[in-house]
Structure formats: structure tokens, C-alpha cells
Description:
Elements: E1 2-10, H1 16-24, E2 42-48, E3 51-57, H2 67-80, E4 85-91, H3 98-108, E5 114-119, H4 126-139, E6 144-147, H5 156-164, H6 184-199, E7 209-218, E8 221-230, H7 233-240, H8 245-262, E9 265-274, H9 282-287
Parallel strand pairs: 1-3, 1-4, 4-5, 5-6, 8-9
Antiparallel strand pairs: 2-3, 7-8
Helix pairs in contact: 6-8
Amino acid sequence: xxxxxxxxxxxxxxxxxxxxxxxxxxxxxxxxxxxxxxxxxxxxxxxxxxxxxxxxxxxxxxxxxxxxxxxxxxxxxxxxxxxxxxxxxxxxxxxxxxxxxxxxxxxxxxxxxxxxxxxxxxxxxxxxxxxxxxxxxxxxxxxxxxxxxxxxxxxxxxxxxxxxxxxxxxxxxxxxxxxxxxxxxxxxxxxxxxxxxxxxxxxxxxxxxxxxxxxxxxxxxxxxxxxxxxxxxxxxxxxxxxxxxxxxxxxxxxxxxxxxxxxxxxxxxxxxxxxxxxxxxxxxxxxxxxxxxx
Length: 294
Ligand SMILES: Nc1nc2c(ncn2[C@@H]2O[C@H](COP(=O)(O)OP(=O)(O)OP(=O)(O)O)[C@@H](O)[C@H]2O)c(=O)[nH]1
Ligand SMILES: [Mg+2]
């Protein structure tokens, strides 16, 4: 048997979390069409008969304008050092820009095999994909260049097969039933955050975070109390919505998904709280699950 760790890195919105979920065939990380969705390093564990691969999804690397952003970049950099292979994801629809260049320079420092993953090829013609591959070959001698569609699940098996060639460990790090290193309460808060992200616009998604205040298993059901935290009263009003319509919508969507995920009844109570400047205060960042903040 072979095993190893594989890091997913790239700019925000490149499709890292979508790709990890597609490989695992299970939603371990939330996704959205807005940049800076992932805020923690999340391991997703892939198993087949003769392989275990621990995928390490990371926050998109970007220019930070809050302490939270600095934390996200640091999380991403930190995880690069401990993997066997780095998957450098780019959005194939977009030209290779300064942001991608910055990420590439950073990951070169880790001195690991780098696969260039050209994602979102479902939106491109074969000719365009071929031209891109030629172009990227001149940018860096990548160990592999693999075009994929994370969303449409194209070329996923080829990617996994290629990764296997680079693995050298021979131990299972996790038992085969484990799909992530994150606790259940994290998955719950993330699913609520995903719904809040999807239903809000502009600066609102980035100004909010979610936490589980209490979670109890009773008679085969989960009773969950959760909070959506925002940094301003005006955003609280947006998240509550007219006559509570927005918070109700978020709660219903989250509950339905949680019921499918856990295959049990879910009783979810969600409230909105204001914590001014939470993204800039280390005390709150730690309290809301962004640990090891320095
Ligand atoms: N058309 C297309 N869209 C994709 C593909 N993969 C991801 N997307 C979309 O791209 C957006 C971003 O996907 P995410 O997986 O959240 O991106 P990410 O790289 O994890 O982003 P951050 O967590 O912000 O760093 C979502 O709207 C996805 O549906 C793909 O293969 N094709
Ligand atoms: Mg992500």
C-alpha cells in the first residue's frame, strides 16, 4: 500500500475545495462563487484498495486587508511544508496573473513536486486547453500539468493515478472510515456559513463567521444551537432579513443539508450576533476557531 499528503494551493476561487470534494466524492469543504471561502486548513482523506491520500485544502492566497486574511495566508503557507506533492490550482478561464505568480514563487520555496492543475476546463475548447498547456510550460518546469474540471469531474481519476506515482509512505494515517480531520461541529458551522455566503452579497459574506454554541445527540437526532457572527448592526439586520426571512432561509437550507449529511433529524436554532471588528481582534479570531494566531 502507498500513502501520502497532497496540498491544494492557489488563489481564492480557483476551485481547490471543489476539487477536493470531487476526488473524495463527499463534501468535506464548503465552496462558493465568492473568493476567500475556505478559512481553515482542512484535510480530506481519500482511500481505495491500495492507497490513502490525505488532501490538504487551504485558504486561497491573497493580499490581506484584515488580520483574518493574514491568518489565512499563514495557514496556507504552513501546510505546504508538510506535504509530498503540491497541486497548484489555477482558473484556466483567467490569464496567469500577478496573484498566480506570487503563489507560484511561494510554493517553489517548499521544494516539493508541483503539479499545475488547470481547472474549469469545462468552459474551454480543446484547442484552448492545449494552447494553455504550452504557455504554462514556459512559466515553470512543472512536474506535471493536468487539466481538470473539478465541477464536472473530468480527469479526476487521471489526476489521482498520477499522484499515486509520487507517493512513498506505506502507512495508513487514518482509519478508512475517517473522511476529515475536522470535528463534526466544524462541519456544521461551515455548512451554515456556506448558506449565508450563498444568500448574501458584496461585503456581507466576508464580514460573517459561524460557530456552533451547543450540539447534543438525543434520540437519534442532533439538537444544534449556532450563531452567525457579524461585525456591524446593519449586517445583523441584513442577515435576519424582513420578518426574519433571511435567517429562516439560511437555517432551512443548512438543516436540509445536515440531515442528508448525517442521515438523522436535525433541530437547528440559529441566531445572529454582533461582535465589532471580530476579523481584526486576535481574541475573537481564536474564539471563533482560528487558532494558533500569532
Ligand atoms: N465551471 C467550473 N466552475 C468551477 C470548477 N471548479 C470550481 N468551480 C467554481 O468556482 C467557484 C470557486 O470554487 P471553490 O472550490 O470554492 O474555490 P476555492 O479555490 O476553494 O476558493 P477559496 O476557498 O476562496 O480559496 C465555485 O463557484 C465553483 O463552483 C470547474 O471545474 N468548472
Ligand atoms: Mg476553498
